[in-house]
Amino acid sequence: MSAQPNVSAKPRITRRVMAAQPSASMALEARIGEMRAAGEPVISFGAGEPDFPTPDAIKLNGHEAIDTNLTKYTPAGGTVALHKAIAARMKADTGLDYKNSQITITNGGKEAIYLAMQALVEAGDEVIIPAPYWVSYPEMVRLADGVPVIIPTTVKENFKVTPEVLRAHTTPKTRMFVLVSPSNPTGEMYTKNELEAIAEWLRGNDALILTDELYDRIVYDGEYARWLVVAPDLADRTIVVNGLSKSVAMTGWRIGFAAGPEAYIKAMVKVQGHSTTHPSSISQHAALKAYTTNLDAEIAKMVAAFRERRDWIVDALCEIPGVTCLTPPGAFYVFPDLTGLYGKTLKYGGPFNSTAEIAGYLLDKVKVGIIHGEAFGAPGCARMSYALGMDKIQEGLKRMYDALTIVA
Fold first, then answer.
1. In this structure, how many other beta carbons lie within 10 angstroms of the beta carbon of residue 229?
2. How far is the C-alpha of 404 from the C-alpha of 379, rounded, in Å?
3. Which residue intervals of the chain bear CATH 3.90.1150.10?
4. Domain covering 15-53+297-403 in this structure, CATH number
5. Which residues contact 150 (CB under 8 A, 6 or more apart)?
6. Which CATH architecture has domain 71-292?
7. How far is 240 from 338, CA to CA, in rounded Å?
8. 186, 262, 340, 342 — which has fewest CB within 10 A?
């Protein structure tokens, strides 16, 4: 009689995966999906996804890829045509020349960041990440057996890190600095002068720079300061991550890219070749149109709508007693400070002493989804996306105003 498998054996999961935390934003959207499926009228401020359709010119190129049978494997890291188009975009944005071998096309910007961590971070290497941070940065570092070094920032600092603080956290093990502007989750943006000061700190060490520029086209106030325009001399140790998810509403198409020194990109492509290989050939062909067509009018229309929503939601949040909110100059998030509600009894419950508790309360009592600041390394605040229709924003804030009424 053959031996039977031991079905009761405890699953063995790697230490690095066990140490990683699930994505708070994905978890919220999953729960909201379940609630909506059950017929509950949930309004979610959680998703980091434009509510606009992908421009028609891009969609037509996607159809063309299917109709002309561009449905086979492409080279690892993407097609030569798309590499050339992105190199041209990088030249226009930074003034720097990039060869095809200095670019890889990825399944969204998220994969580009993951590949960089896997290829460039050794066990024990320290990666400096200012908080608030996008939820996946520290987890990607941990999955590479690196050490995330979190630097807290405050509302008074507009959630931005200073060179003095960076120097205080620099050690011989510092391998990389993660720069995000405009920021997810705060929408804040570094100025030219602020980037110049950070560049001066970096010239005093040999840390790599990963600059996440996914929101570079969604800017409202002031001129966008691009890292490699400010510090072109640091291009030899800078990985630029960008893509089309946010700027032209292509989240589901999954097209991002990384551009940087050839040796680093080749190392990332090696990892990519043993994992995803390349993004969908259909999405790549659609992306080619996005990078070779002037879509400024479509982007401007989207940004104008986001600006109107931003202005409205900031004003509405600041009208809630106990809540304050900065006006972000970019992206499509607000990051209100809810600490004025701590210890208070609210209309339907309380008192609460964390934004995680307040977020759970709002979802349970008035069917409004926000992401608590603890997930972003910023207890006391919460991320709210305004990439949804104004009618939903207004209804959601109406429910929040009601639920956050302080009664004691």
1. 14
2. 18
3. 15-53+297-403
4. 3.90.1150.10
5. 129, 130, 131, 133, 138, 377
6. 3-Layer(aba) Sandwich (3.40)
7. 34
8. 262
| Three-class secondary structure of residue 115 per DSSP | helix
| H/E stretch holding 333 | strand 333-334
Q: Where are the CATH 3.40.640.10 domain residues in the chain?
A: 71-292
Question: Which tokens is 295 given?
Answer: 């879509």
Q: For 169, list phi and psi in degrees, rounded to 5.
A: -105, 5
Question: Which secondary structure element, helix H or strand E, spans residue 206, and what is its range?
Answer: none
For residue range 341-379, what is the model confidence (pLDDT) as tens digits?
Answer: 999 999 999 999 999 999 999 999 999 999 999 999 999
Non-local CB neighbours of 62 within 8 Å, separated by 6+ positions: 253, 282, 283, 285, 286
Q: Which of 127, 130, 135, 209 is nearest to 170 (CA)?
A: 127
* pLDDT tens-place string over residues 161-190: 999 999 999 999 999 999 999 999 999 999
Distance (Å) of CA 151 to CA 25, 109, 162: 21, 23, 10
Residue showing tokens 């009689």: 1
Contacts of 332 (CB under 8 A, 6+ apart): 48, 50, 187, 215, 218, 246, 306, 309, 310, 385, 386, 387
Higher pLDDT, 372 or 29: 372
Per DSSP (E only), the strands in 17-102 are 43-44
Rounded CA separation 372/357 (Å): 8
**Residue 260, both tokens:** 């940087």
pLDDT band at residue 3, thresholds of 50, 70 and 90? low
Q: Please state, in angstroms and rounded to a whole number, the distance separating the CA atoms of residues 55 and 262.
A: 32
Mark out the alpha helices in 105-248 (DSSP H runs).
Answer: 108-120, 136-143, 163-168, 192-202, 227-230
Query: How does strand 333-334 pair with strand 382-385?
Result: antiparallel
| The overall pTM is greater than 0.90 | yes
Tens digit of each residue's pLDDT (9 = 90 or more) over 40-54: 999 999 988 999 999
